[in-house]
Amino acid sequence: MTGFIDVADILKGDNEDGAEVKVRGWIYTSRSSGGIQFLELRDGSGVIQCTLNKRNIDAETFSRVEKLPLETALEMKGKVKEDNRAPGGWEIRVNEIGNVYESKLDYPIVKKEQGIEFLMDNRHLYIREPKLQNIFQIRAKFLQAARDWFKENGYTEVQTPMFMTASVEGGSTLFSVEYFERKGVYLSQSWQLYAEALISSLGKIYTIAPSFRAEPSRTRRHLSEFLHMELEEPWSTLSDIQNSGDRLVCHMANTLAEVMPEKVKAVGRDPDYLASLKAPFPKITYDEAVEIVQSKNIEMFWGDDFGWQQEGPLTEEFETPFWVVGYPSGIKPFYHMPDPKRAEVTLSSDLLAPEGYGEIIGGGQRVHNYEQLYQRTLDDGLDPANYAWYMDLRKWGTVPHSGFGLGVERVLMWMLKLDHIRDTVPFPRDMRRVYP
RNA sequence: GCCGCCAUAGCUCAGCUCGGUAGAGCGUCUGCCUGUUAAGCAGUUGGUCAACGGUUCAAUUCCGUUUGGCGGCGCCA
Q1: Rounded to a whole number, what is the distance in angstroms from the first to the last CA of chain A?
Q2: pLDDT tens digit string along A263-318?
Q3: Domain at A124-424: CATH architecture
Q4: For labeling, which of A20, A49, A133, A293 is most exposed (least CB within 10 Å)?
Q5: Does residue A226 surpass a pLDDT of 60?
Q6: Residue ranges, CATH 2.40.50.140, chain A
Q7: Cα–Cα distance for residue pair A208/A278, rounded to 1 Å
Q8: How far in angstroms lies nucleotide B74's C1' from the CA of residue A215?
Q9: CA distance A166 to A88
Q10: CB A82 within 8 A of CB A30
């Protein structure tokens, strides 16, 4: 057989009722009722019900197909019919079978409830489930929408090394690697130090790359390997970078709602919500955030970072993402620029997603003055000698600049209203899981 | 890293409190069924009770250790 079409095209109504089509895919479910059987066929694009009726097909083919195990791959020819008895509203009345790639028996994934441990051990098969298929397709569109936005706004994409010798975030969360004979080589936690060097070469830049954090975090919002979308701009202040974040996030949300609303809905998020998001997002100061938390009778002192006890209730006050601006110096890394009007806080800002999802972007304005950065490094208990090339950047043509990092999986988790980050990625890596 | 919980058939679980070598549903398989939606009906198959050690005449059951996992905390995107 040749000339196969995508299931997605049939479900969109691209083919007239009664048109003859050829499809190929994997048997997702099958039900037989004597003279008629129903196969749900899954190809890369969607799932469609195929019916085989003894009146329309020879008995040998009928009984052969009836015996095929789940996940058998096969080619079929038949007539498209609009029929509200079929899931998805369309089905194919099959009249001919092409090549068949028969499965083994006992495909382990069944349509009954199964435990998370088992499903994660069989992740290499479970990723075939239509819900995950939808999420991964949305994820791909999400990344494409981001790249479109960066292109339209004059950013250059650039990659930086995954092997590094300096820490961006805290040193305790570094993954150490064996790098030939050399000690002190780690997997990247962020591109930021390299990004600050590259803005003097390329101007506005972004990257989409993995970051690795050895945080021993057992929560539904942590991965040890996550996709990091980071952006760095010269001649940019805190409010400039917030503006970029607002527009980027809204563009991605609006695009998903516009381009694949049915998939968004199938996964669990009302696409109208994503369509309704508009820049700019609300801003509150760190001080105001502390007051809100305290007004809910939750313990918090000025200078503390938000724990889950504080952040959860805070995010329930909002229906869209919102910025918390001006974190205390004590809880932010050395490269954050102190507020010139108020030295105890930094020109930093995190974007928190509503509904308890929490932090999805962290960033702010960087220190661009050499002496100030040197002092901040010492204040943070670090040795400036370990950051020699990074300090160098402040000697020649240093300008105000800002940037942020966005956790792709965190944003997807919120946009798709998922209850665990693990399903935003095919093979999640966390402190307990590196297989399959 | 800390706190809590879990591990029995391919899967989801019951049995353990009060010790005497195991049971259901689903799946597989065999039939039946011409509109099913996690289809239905009948029959069939299927287990070194996570591993190691202890107590005991006897341990899936009680105790300890280990391994793996799940949920949460702290920390972060």
Answers
A1: 35
A2: 999 999 999 999 999 999 999 999 999 999 988 888 888 888 888 888 888 998 89
A3: 2-Layer Sandwich (3.30)
A4: A20
A5: yes
A6: 7-101
A7: 23
A8: 11
A9: 53
A10: no
Give the CA-to-C1' distance from A114 to B58 in angstroms: 36
Distance CA A106, CA A125 (A): 12
**Chosen CATH of A7-101 out of 2.30.180.10, 1.20.272.10, 2.40.50.140, 3.90.76.10:** 2.40.50.140
In Å, what is the separation between the CA of A67 and the C1' of B10?
19
Q: pLDDT per residue over A388-408, tens digit each?
A: 999 999 999 999 999 999 999
DSSP states along A296-312: TT----TTPPP-HHHHH
Please give the pLDDT value at position A166: 74
**Residue–nucleotide distance: A305 CA to B72 C1' (Å):** 19
Q: Are A271 and A257 in contact (CB under 8 A)?
A: yes
Alpha helices (runs of H) in A165-221, residue ranges in sequence order? 192-202
Task: Give the distance, in angstroms, between residue A307 CA and nucleotide B17 C1'.
Answer: 40
Mean pLDDT of A72-86: 95
Nucleotides of B under 7 A from a protein CB: 1-3, 10-13, 25-30, 32-40, 68-77
Share of chain A above pLDDT 70, in %: 99
pLDDT at residue A124, rounded to an integer = 93
Give the nucleotide at minimum CA-to-C1' distance from A352: B77
Type of residue found at A325: V
ipTM associated with this complex: 0.90
Non-local (6+) Cβ contacts of A219 within 8 A are A308
Give chain A's mean pLDDT. 93
Quote the pLDDT of residue A170: 59
Q: Which nucleotide minimizes the distance between its C1' and the CA of A218?
A: B72
